[in-house]
Amino acid sequence: MATPWQCLCLILILIISILCQASSIQLPSKNGARYLSIFWSSNRTLSVSPKYNYETKYFQQKLDHFSFTHLPSFRQRYLINTQYWLGPSRLGPIFLYCGNEGDIEWFAANTGFLWEIAPRFGAMVIFPEHRYYGESMPYGSKEEAYKNATTLSYLTAEQALADYAVLIIELKRNLSAQACPVVLFGGSYGGMLAAWMRLKYPHISIGALASSAPVLQFEDLVPPETFYNIVSNDFRRESMSCFRSIKESWDVINKVGQINGGLAQLTKTFHICRELESADSLTNWLESAYSYLAMANYPYPTDFLMPLPGNPIKEVCRKIDSLPDGASVLQRIFEGVSVYYNYTGKVNCFNLDDDPHGMSGWNWQACTEMIMPMASNRTTSMFPEFYYDPKSNEEQCLKDYHVKPRPTWITTEFGGHAFKSALKAFGSNIIFSNGLLDPWSGGSVLKDVSDTIVALITEKGAHHLDLRAATAEDPDWLLDQRSSEIKMIRDWLDEYYGEKKATFSM
Amino acid sequence: MATPWQCLCLILILIISILCQASSIQLPSKNGARYLSIFWSSNRTLSVSPKYNYETKYFQQKLDHFSFTHLPSFRQRYLINTQYWLGPSRLGPIFLYCGNEGDIEWFAANTGFLWEIAPRFGAMVIFPEHRYYGESMPYGSKEEAYKNATTLSYLTAEQALADYAVLIIELKRNLSAQACPVVLFGGSYGGMLAAWMRLKYPHISIGALASSAPVLQFEDLVPPETFYNIVSNDFRRESMSCFRSIKESWDVINKVGQINGGLAQLTKTFHICRELESADSLTNWLESAYSYLAMANYPYPTDFLMPLPGNPIKEVCRKIDSLPDGASVLQRIFEGVSVYYNYTGKVNCFNLDDDPHGMSGWNWQACTEMIMPMASNRTTSMFPEFYYDPKSNEEQCLKDYHVKPRPTWITTEFGGHAFKSALKAFGSNIIFSNGLLDPWSGGSVLKDVSDTIVALITEKGAHHLDLRAATAEDPDWLLDQRSSEIKMIRDWLDEYYGEKKATFSM
């Protein structure tokens, strides 16, 4: 029985859902691109005060860098710390994090690595916010910016890259720091931006650390099954029986969902607050959990996407496997997924509609440029089988956002099958760091492209673990990875200073 | 006395001028950027039938590649010839001319070099038209496209580059020619586009011949006096007295203009159809002639900008110098400038308002991105002294086009002072060819940047002479230049084929 409090919650959730759906509707669940977005938890995390010292500043940006349309400019927020900066006369470096799809304070709080190494490089630290996220809202407010396809239309990666280019150049000009080298950092989509920045604006920075950046997750550059195969392998490596339980569960859920009273039974078994309207919504909810678990499969407890134990997949599988022989597969699955959705044990029931992805800029991006085909096959994946269907994706995006995806645009703009060879011939100084547990790693660069464009791989790493702050529990391989990164950044800087010196002495 | 026919002409011209000025007004005369545009004569030249064989096709392009605004797409025209193409199976190359600020048929007619060498390379030839020129009009017609700052706002270099990228990729896909190498060509602004294309879309082409491309004519990358100094030198090298006559003439014109009946006297001396309203308009008219003469200072007669004799500046100076000792400086100047404005001898009087620059997309571009600072100093220039004033340029553009120039955008986007070092580190396979008589050469790349980014210089060449069709009068140095270009293009292709072969045999 629901308590009056639960009833009130349900009503509120219903109202909010309806309001949200009016302006933004969920993507089709099988569009894996949405898993890249880690924006959804930022509001929660942001309630804590910032971990690091910075000033918050604002820069007036053009809304469209590539046309001369009369549009209102907008205030781009950036966080800046010059405490350890060597300054212009000593060519103090500038460490810039390419803000991605979320509030920049959240990325600043979760990119401890940058803050920790900046002092030893005498570096200024800048975290510019990505347009249409956090406080960097065109048209004065999120409500206005997210009003419709017209107001949202300038939310693109190219515009964000141009924002960073313009900001860097203006900032350097104001500080008379034109000769100071810029090193870029970025994780996930931010890592893609950092790498693309090296390709498109090579004169702006001297190198980039692109962590967990799935720059190849477009068109047919990697097989569409890649993402779900890696998630599946993350479970299989922990326990074959756990993998099998999950793989079996989908049929069971479907069958139970079809019998009389089956949805009520599923609702009860999974402690869902409102009775399920279809088995599919439960399936989506579970798929999300597994995917995010794989991304956040860190070796120590974190509060990044959700509060989670260390090695959370191991924990999920332990739960699934540890139930007595007679336990149903559904009971196992529920126990397992509770590690993700309820690690604190404080949740009484789960709101499937309370998916924080709802109204997010990333869903717009995933419906416009960031078309990352995803599929799941019967043999290698533990997920239900499905194919990537560009047609239905397009229909959904037209329905949801009144926008037609451009699935070949990113490959046209940044290089498709020729991306790596273009990088080899025309790029330098990029670290593509990846943890192989991260399902996005399959869409990233996993082999050295050249002497200076290198792949740093950790077998047991997950989604941009290297960018996180150091902890006492950091395993050796993580320490090694970070020290390799520091060494490479040092090399870029040394090379730059060497060239500068040679120029001066000429 | 004017004949009735001349009167009718004058009335028509007056009406056209008024109509044109309603939507587009001349740039301040001292904005040298306008001299880059060679669009103005295209309508005249186009009345002749095309010299080369091609099919005319159309490609549906997005108006804004960098946003998802709901805008009408437009038909981009392109000329194509596959007659000599080796086809996809033999990796037949694709020679693509980056259309610049004019009707593409005119560029096709004036880029004989490309047509002449294509057969020996087994190359397909494509001439895509630049958006907002010729038939490639957004919003259905030139009238609509040029209506106001909003409709014109997508006339930018970045959008044009993206047009070419999208067109090439789609065309190759349709022809199953994905593996066929693309070689870019371009002259003047088209050469800038070709070079920028190598920097921004390195995966799209294997090399570019950028002829007379003033990629450095921005901000303070070269001194603002560069352009007019070169024009002046072109006259000085022919005759010091000619140079002096021109240099002296400005004061005389001004003085005469100020006396009673002086404007009438100038009108008569220079055979101007309508009485001059100011001495300035005469000055501008003369400055234009000298600048274009320097650009078109070809070693044989041409009909490129105007019908001109070979070595036209020599001819101008011969006229100026050959008048008897008693001749006035104004008489000398008139005789000289008639070589430019009236080589055919058919013009009875000159219409200063009949400046074909009037309604041109280039003026919009020169008021938005293509901000090329120009100045003239007292010591090295034969032109009246003037300084570059960004403020007054901005005011003029705001007045004329209701648009604010972005003088630092091109340098932000393509690299400013770091352009050459970025090219060196991140570029390859570009020929910057320049004739030193061309006043634009001073803003181009005149020294090798790397082993594969080379400067090809001819001392006696003018504005992208190398791209013109071979003639019986071609001097040896021009033949040498073209054969160097052919050799380099061959090298690019050989290297590409070598790499492909190595990949296949792996």
UniProtKB/TrEMBL annotation, chains A, B:
Signal sequence interval, chain numbering: 1-22
InterPro entries, sorted: AB_hydrolase_fold, Peptidase_S28, Ser_carbopepase_S28_SKS
Family classification: Belongs to the peptidase S28 family.
Gene3D superfamilies recorded: alpha/beta hydrolase, Serine carboxypeptidase S28, SKS domain
Protein name (database record): Lysosomal Pro-X carboxypeptidase
PANTHER family: LYSOSOMAL PRO-X CARBOXYPEPTIDASE, PROTEASE S28 PRO-X CARBOXYPEPTIDASE-RELATED
Any single biological process term in GO: proteolysis
GO MF term set: dipeptidyl-peptidase activity; serine-type exopeptidase activity
Pfam families in UniProt: Peptidase_S28 (PF05577)
Keyword tags: Glycoprotein, Hydrolase, Protease, Signal
